[in-house]
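Progress note, sequence design subtask.
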């Protein structure tokens, strides 16, 4: 199928893109790498009347580190994240996760901003933003605002972005040298959207979690920062403690049914991931029975 007719403009600066978005209101859609928007248009799931192409805005591309903040421009492509020494050094969780996003051809075009603005609940990068305690920078006609990742994802394909706002960048705290991470997803084939996945960032000191952030995906209508992780912080983790955290997690999940899995299967898989993650981060094979 082909997309319905639309008008098109290539933005020459962020200010120009914002002008176009303001002028065309809800009729307009931003085009970044096009790896989600164009298939949706070709399938006629979406029919924007005006496309604002931001793909040439070099100012929105790249990874920088200043002090203890890692900034990733919205147009940084998945393939760039995979190759970035800054990401490998300061947010290796993100590098591990990006390797699971689609396939090389899609990663060569798709951008981090597009992935976050798309807000697919089965997507890897939104959950990483929760685990890494990211701040999303948005710019609109009234200026810039900073949105905590935990407040950014609002539902299936829904975010806190207003129609006339652009996602400009993502800021991540540089992870301490002794921090550790875990990433795993269950998917039918490598590169498919996950059935259930977990992106976790942790600090382990003297065999206990000093910090633990668990970002689950494909367990509801948006990524989930599991509050039940709190039960595992600063305590000696025993099988009983882990079982309690697992029950608490169960209450937090609201998995959806689709052709890939039932809600019950997703709950089961999320709990398996929790157990494997904790066992791996604490290097305690005795905690893993699944
Ligand atoms: P676009 O398609 O250009 O835009 C996506 C949406 O975000 C649009 O609504 C657009 O208006 C909006 N948008 C983009 N940039 C901005 C911005 N800066 N500010 C405001 N709004 C913006 N994704 C996964 O996460 N995991 C997968 O496993 C996966 N597998 C895929 C497999 C296939 C076969 C395909 C075709 C896609 C797959 N995707 C997957 C989706 C895709 O990889 C990502 O969603 C994509 O990278 C989004 O980035 P983009 O730059 O291409 O966004």
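Output:
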């Amino acid at each position: 199928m082909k997309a319905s007719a639309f008008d098109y403009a290539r933005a020459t600066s962020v200010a120009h893109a914002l002008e176009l978005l303001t002028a065309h209101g809800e009729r307009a859609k931003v085009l970044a790498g096009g790896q989600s928007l164009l298939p949706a248009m070709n399938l006629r799931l979406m029919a924007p009347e005006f496309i604002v192409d931001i793909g040439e805005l070099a100012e929105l591309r790249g990874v920088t580190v200043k002090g203890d903040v890692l900034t990733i421009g919205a147009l940084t492509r998945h393939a760039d994240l995979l190759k970035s020494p800054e990401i490998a050094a300061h947010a290796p969780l993100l590098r591990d996760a990006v390797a699971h996003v689609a396939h090389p051809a899609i990663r060569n075009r798709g951008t981090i901003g597009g992935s976050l603005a798309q807000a697919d609940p089965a997507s890897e990068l939104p959950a990483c933003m929760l685990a890494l305690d990211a701040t999303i920078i948005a710019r609109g006609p009234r200026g810039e605002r900073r949105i905590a990742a935990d407040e950014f994802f609002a539902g299936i394909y829904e975010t806190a972005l207003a129609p006339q706002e652009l996602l400009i960048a993502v800021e991540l705290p540089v992870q301490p040298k002794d921090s550790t991470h875990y990433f795993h997803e269950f998917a039918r084939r490598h590169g498919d959207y996950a059935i259930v996945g977990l992106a976790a960032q942790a600090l382990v000191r003297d065999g206990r979690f000093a910090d633990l952030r668990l970002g689950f995906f494909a367990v509801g209508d948006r990524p989930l920062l599991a509050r039940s992780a709190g039960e595992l912080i600063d305590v000696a983790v025993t099988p009983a403690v882990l079982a309690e955290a697992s029950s608490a997690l169960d209450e937090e999940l609201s998995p959806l049914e689709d052709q890939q899995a039932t809600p019950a299967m997703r709950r089961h898989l999320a709990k398996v991931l929790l157990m494997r993650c904790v066992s791996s981060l604490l290097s305690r094979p005795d905690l893993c029975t699944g």
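DSSP finds eleven helices and 14 strands in the chain. Work on this subtask will continue into the next period as scheduled.
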